[in-house]
Design goal:
The protein has 68 residues and is mainly α. The protein contains three helices and two strands. A two-stranded antiparallel ribbon has the order 1-2. The longest helix has 20 residues.
């Protein structure tokens, strides 16, 4: 029966480990999104994404300079 107890313990540890991994990632997402489009207020990760965003969503507008 020793193996049975080890199996139960392993299942319990695995369940605890998997339970800790679940949850909201909103905080981590907020940290990663640092650039905000001044027109539509969408959050983007970096300047390159902002330039691509302007090309696709605001083609008539000029993208802001990287220093802003």
């Amino acid at each position: 029966m020793t193996r049975g107890k080890q199996k139960i313990d392993a299942q319990r540890r695995s369940a605890e480990k998997n339970q800790k991994a679940k949850g909201s990632q909103l905080e981590a997402r907020a940290v990663g999104l640092k650039v905000i489009c001044p027109i539509c207020k969408v959050q983007l990760a970096n300047e390159k994404q902002l330039i691509d965003h302007y090309g696709s969503k605001h083609p008539k507008e000029k993208p802001p300079s990287p220093s802003e």
